[in-house]
Amino acid sequence: MVLTLVLSIFVSLIFLCDKLYHQLTAKLPPGPWPWPVIGNIVDITPVRFRCFAEWAQVYGPIFSFYVGSRLNVVVNNAELAKEVLKDNDQNLANRFRTKPLNIMSKNGVDLIWADYGPHYVKVRKLCNLELFTPKRLEALRPIREDEVTAMIENIFKDCTKHGNVSKILMLRSYLGSVAFNNITRLAFGKRFMNSEGEVDEQGEELKAIVTNGIKIGGKLSLGEFVPWLRWVFKDDDEALEAQVRRLDKFTRTMMEEYTLARKKTGETKQHFVDALFTLQKEYDLSDDTVIGLLSDMIAAGTDTVAITVEWAMAELVKNPRVQQKVQEELNRVFGSDCTVNESDISKLSYLQHVVKESLRLHPPTPLMLPHMAGNNAKVGGYNIPKGSIVHVNVWALGRDSRIWKDPLQFWPERYMKEDVDMKGHDYRLLPFGSGRRVCPGTNLAINLVTSMLAHLLHHFVWSLPIGVEVEDIDMMESPGTVTYMQTPLHVVPTPRLPLHLYTHVE
């Protein structure tokens, strides 16, 4: 017993001395002192980006910490974000993949989790030149408009049906249906939900796969970073293997259905499965890469859109002045006897400011996805060794009082005075990332979010339930890689247009 204690103390001292020597000689960013073996994992609170913003107040805008023996670096202001995403873009463009993510992405043969190199460049080129072109996005516009107008009809039916005295709706379920149906139709050319909102068996399986994948991928497991503890987490490994099997089975079934349908008709479609099959030989894509790209689209396009719209609606309910101003703009552009047409949304400049302001305060991926140093780099005057994990705290960038006046205030008018790009060129506002790893579906996401908000605000006035005050709205985020509102938003919609404009025509 005594010998064990002495050995433990000895090992701890060696670890601490090694870390101290490394910190002093390598000129690493400052940060909290790590515990032996486990690092700082016990110090990190569940909502990590808030935790890191608090640490930045103590250690400065760039700091480091350890998870196990793995060095992590976090930057929390625009100047340092530029150094990471532009000045050191190529050196820091790799992806850190946990064991679950490595297995689910088949060692990074997709786009999101691929390291920077020839494969990533090839797949990125495919996305930019083939999948997310303005021409293809325009061709897919009827799908987006169809799903958004279906949402409006469902909300109208539910808030006006007999017996619904309170008229209170949980908005998230409607937003989630639009995002889910839109992305499945774009990816597979197939709707898994009927007009009554009932999801078929395949749809339920896909929802479960997406939800479970986000849960597994976002889990911070000590076994990942302390190898000799991995045996403790064998249940996680079994769940991971089951997830991979489910995903492969589902995607291959979709691909087989598509192949049979195309053989029968000989027709090509605009959806992504068709595009990927058409281009598979030209771009030399393996089946695993095709599956990985489809999985990326489903994972990235389902939750983030619903999250963004829910946060924006929460701010609009809290700020009736802003909501009324958007509705006045909608009346000017579309009139009170006409529905919204996505092709004219570019005329809604104030609504676009609202979207931008919501993304500043509530980015759906507040820490982006983790970058990894493929080579030694220097950021903020500190050394970033090869293999380090690098995080950009986008949430903190949007709330930096040095560059944003009244940063906690929801004030879309700030963009009337200064136009701020949100597609990766202005490092104060990075909801979609920047540099080599910027989201290729940015324009698609912005189109759908803006269209959903335009329809919601044109068709209804939104208010809080009776007895609920603005201060009662829970504006805390849920833990995870993507951040829903911790408490779903409950609201009361009141129709504001002629009744015939609430009927969905397929």
From TrEMBL:
<dbReference type="GO" id="GO:0004497">
    <property type="term" value="F:monooxygenase activity"/>
</dbReference>
<keyword id="KW-0732">Signal</keyword>
<comment type="similarity">
    <text>Belongs to the cytochrome P450 family.</text>
</comment>
<dbReference type="Pfam" id="PF00067">
    <property type="entry name" value="p450"/>
</dbReference>
<feature type="signal peptide">
    <location>
        <begin position="1"/>
        <end position="19"/>
    </location>
</feature>
<keyword id="KW-0503">Monooxygenase</keyword>
<keyword id="KW-1133">Transmembrane helix</keyword>
<dbReference type="GO" id="GO:0005506">
    <property type="term" value="F:iron ion binding"/>
</dbReference>
<keyword id="KW-0472">Membrane</keyword>
<feature type="binding site" description="axial binding residue">
    <location>
        <position position="439"/>
    </location>
    <ligand>
        <name>heme</name>
    </ligand>
</feature>
<keyword id="KW-0812">Transmembrane</keyword>
<dbReference type="InterPro" id="IPR001128">
    <property type="entry name" value="Cyt_P450"/>
</dbReference>
<dbReference type="InterPro" id="IPR017972">
    <property type="entry name" value="Cyt_P450_CS"/>
</dbReference>
<dbReference type="GO" id="GO:0016705">
    <property type="term" value="F:oxidoreductase activity, acting on paired donors, with incorporation or reduction of molecular oxygen"/>
</dbReference>
<protein>
    <submittedName>
        <fullName>Uncharacterized protein</fullName>
    </submittedName>
</protein>
<dbReference type="InterPro" id="IPR002401">
    <property type="entry name" value="Cyt_P450_E_grp-I"/>
</dbReference>
<keyword id="KW-0560">Oxidoreductase</keyword>
<dbReference type="GO" id="GO:0016020">
    <property type="term" value="C:membrane"/>
</dbReference>
<dbReference type="GO" id="GO:0020037">
    <property type="term" value="F:heme binding"/>
</dbReference>
<keyword id="KW-0349">Heme</keyword>
<keyword id="KW-0408">Iron</keyword>
<keyword id="KW-0479">Metal-binding</keyword>
<dbReference type="InterPro" id="IPR036396">
    <property type="entry name" value="Cyt_P450_sf"/>
</dbReference>
